[in-house]
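Table S5 (text form). Sequence records supplied for joint modeling of the four-component complex.
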Amino acid sequence: MAYVLGHHQYGKAEVRVVRVYRDTDPHELVDYNVSVALQGDFADAHIEGDQAKILTTDACKNTVNAFAKEHGDAARQPETFALVLARHFVRDVPQVSQARVQIEAYPWDRAHGTPHGFVRRGDHVRTTTVTVRGDDETVVSGLRGLTVLKTTDSEFHGFYEDRYTTLKPTNDRIMATEIQAQWLHSVTETGWEASFSAVKTAITHSFANAYSYALQHTLWEMGQAVLDAAPTVSEIRFSCPNKHHFVVDLSPFGLENPNEVFHADDRPYGLIEASVLRAEGPGRSDAFDPGQAW
Amino acid sequence: MAYVLGHHQYGKAEVRVVRVYRDTDPHELVDYNVSVALQGDFADAHIEGDQAKILTTDACKNTVNAFAKEHGDAARQPETFALVLARHFVRDVPQVSQARVQIEAYPWDRAHGTPHGFVRRGDHVRTTTVTVRGDDETVVSGLRGLTVLKTTDSEFHGFYEDRYTTLKPTNDRIMATEIQAQWLHSVTETGWEASFSAVKTAITHSFANAYSYALQHTLWEMGQAVLDAAPTVSEIRFSCPNKHHFVVDLSPFGLENPNEVFHADDRPYGLIEASVLRAEGPGRSDAFDPGQAW
Amino acid sequence: MAYVLGHHQYGKAEVRVVRVYRDTDPHELVDYNVSVALQGDFADAHIEGDQAKILTTDACKNTVNAFAKEHGDAARQPETFALVLARHFVRDVPQVSQARVQIEAYPWDRAHGTPHGFVRRGDHVRTTTVTVRGDDETVVSGLRGLTVLKTTDSEFHGFYEDRYTTLKPTNDRIMATEIQAQWLHSVTETGWEASFSAVKTAITHSFANAYSYALQHTLWEMGQAVLDAAPTVSEIRFSCPNKHHFVVDLSPFGLENPNEVFHADDRPYGLIEASVLRAEGPGRSDAFDPGQAW
Amino acid sequence: MAYVLGHHQYGKAEVRVVRVYRDTDPHELVDYNVSVALQGDFADAHIEGDQAKILTTDACKNTVNAFAKEHGDAARQPETFALVLARHFVRDVPQVSQARVQIEAYPWDRAHGTPHGFVRRGDHVRTTTVTVRGDDETVVSGLRGLTVLKTTDSEFHGFYEDRYTTLKPTNDRIMATEIQAQWLHSVTETGWEASFSAVKTAITHSFANAYSYALQHTLWEMGQAVLDAAPTVSEIRFSCPNKHHFVVDLSPFGLENPNEVFHADDRPYGLIEASVLRAEGPGRSDAFDPGQAW
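The corresponding structure-token record, covering 1176 residues in total, follows.
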């Protein structure tokens, strides 16, 4: 045949499952968006239209819901829930060679100390991507939507200038970004909630406190702070839009504007991406294939 | 002429202005999205193509930015900022008979006690709509995006049944909604931040604590709590989607599901709207035209 | 009691129903998003928590789905489908005094002349809002998302200048907008598809051909064209963002830019709203309450 | 040092440039969203906070705008515009080793044969990703947002069943998806518009005409059709959500529903991904690194 089937995978995306723990007092809950992607012996579904080896995406959804009950303890943390799901697909469905389970977890706060009332936080979404392939298991944790801003202690100057460079250097500017980060663990068991909390605190603390000479510089600072704070993390990758705040020219109105009034622009934005890794040691995962897990 | 020009207004929408107060230690900031809509003697712009009376929308934008500097104190609260802007357009631009200024305010928390670092909260957006027409001034405050959920203390039964009714009554369900509310003040001066905080607390506290026989019932409870808590509020209007959480049927897998595993559905959703007003007294604004300000 | 219940209504929003006509050859389909809002004797649901008169929003959804089968011919057009639904709720459910049914219709094109294959158009969404209250019935049709642009034949100058005006007048600019329009019919029966098509054509034809001295001017031109083209339309209301395209200053790079390279800005945008009505005659609906139907 | 900087790149994202060709009669226009990502000798910007080698993202934006004038002919097609931009960054900025330029192109139709009026199509977005690294140049074209549906000629049965499988097999269902596809060219020069048109037609024609035993099956059919139709394409990758349309159970209302009334569900959805490649020959690009260009 002149054509061949290349890389292929499939699954159910965005299963919105909420698990309430009513046997505790007060109640607890987790709020997840779960996506499953399977690889394996599925070429016939494409080429022959033969579904004999296809686990339906509907069954993937059912599995997520059933496991929220059967594996209620695992479901308390996105990492452990993703692990039991991914292991199940690889171990119990013969034709599956690899399962990737991604979870977005939406955090809720208890409302006013009431046992059963909750308010959804909107300051970040917690994420995880677990990939199981045979005995290889990688756990990546992450967050997105964490928007931070500093009103000073940020400079940007001394940059390369070409024919198309018109930007003026500055010794004091607003720096703001919406942090998206993913970090690879060197283990598959740890205290996931404490680890997440340590990483998130390291990121916001470092962003707020470290003097910045560029958003690139700040990513490096934040990455180091994360690796200092979270011993099971071997690598962290950031993707951060530079959310530009432009000083508005008020001189036509006879007004000074000493960095007080800014236009928060939508587009375009700088997009800065970087990863920070441990140089060596047990936290360094050389086997990690970022193409699958990131 | 066979045709006439009906209702018309115009202005600049979504001016994204960030005001930093650098003369304070620590810095403070407000983050606004300002929209201006003007009514007045503007028919010629439509019918004759004659712009002689049109204040450009670009000038509206400039005014927002300039006022963030010139009226820096007013800009600290969305209600006072909207008032100075709306009064300016009506008083200083002769052909403007009415100005409506709407502001969305995005709240930020200080990061880890640092003086200049901030993390954007995402749990709600604070809103205001100020309308000035001659000497009439109405101030409406509001919020949107406040998502709340209770895991119990919510029933729904005893409802009307017609040919198309298949819903089963329930004595225990998840109730969740994303609250959008707007409330009319009987005054144009008060402590706006304290007032907003009192209203928001009344809403979440009432939602979490009041036993519910329907989302309609809860809106009434929340409305009363707001009027109890905020003496300058004469009316509050809610628009609340009933974000359905369906109990997943796990019986095909031999599993019980005693209200533990839910599917959080996107669409359709119930949409419940109601206003609660003071029956009489100084807080009752009969002059209020909801068509303009809501 | 110190507080009273004000305006209230409820219903099911965003029922996503697709109706396929398989008894025709080739197949036909409509793709709707239906929202129902009911008013009536519903105060007890709020105040007493008594649901005895509440038609559940779930039943509203069921009714939409069942009517797509039972009233299959009516479902071919959003206006007729909304009418049968709204009439049903008012006539068959005693406690309902008013029903408002809103439909968004997503248009599809047949693919390559195949009988059963379709490609979704994305150039506009067709809308309708039908309100039935006793014997009063109003039908409003509309569209949104229709984005149009003209590269010339648009001026903007001679405008009012105040202290905050810095805009330069122009005799040649790009004008672009995303048209949202709603029009009120003086009848409740007509050829809805032909009428919609005539209005949409009048809008785009007028936008493209009429010389413009402001977006306000263009709304007036488009409104007249619609009333000329659609005899059952008594009023049309536009809400149109002025999607600014700014000429990029290329002089720092030694380049001319004679209106060739533009930055398409997101925010802020001008927002121009206007309605055009028949001055008199059978097409003029004085009974129309825009607060409900618009 | 204990930590090292891993993969990093940066640039300006989402430069919204509109280029009008006014020297032609009638006018022509292209409407682009351009994103630039640069790799190279940029570690010092992170680690030392030294920006001496950083071409500012502002200059990236300026370059896009200036090139829209300087390379007006290249700007007529997204592929050629991305190529001149990416080549410039690699060849003219010494510290840049690799440039990736991504463009989203929004198509417009001429309105009613007018020379200067346009209506934006919304049925798809055309995309391209060009990567230049030294002498290696890869051109990937694509589209997204192309939503297609067939009302019959789609089956799904004979699938694998495990403990969590409850789906019923079907011999006739609606199949719908929103196609996102990217295809790699074996050349860097061709008639890009004709090539895009041939691929898009092959996709929709194949979707509409090929009998389907699964969405997987249809991806394979569409992939082959594309390779048949576009000789310069060596590989095409699809990512297609299975937009489920569920037959509504109308039996509680005493109604049959022979595949006529469907609920169009939002989430979850199946997500099917596959690539189809030439087995051998000049169209086969073995050097292609999908990690960069896809």
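Note: The CA atoms of residues 10 and 252 of chain C lie 58 Å apart.
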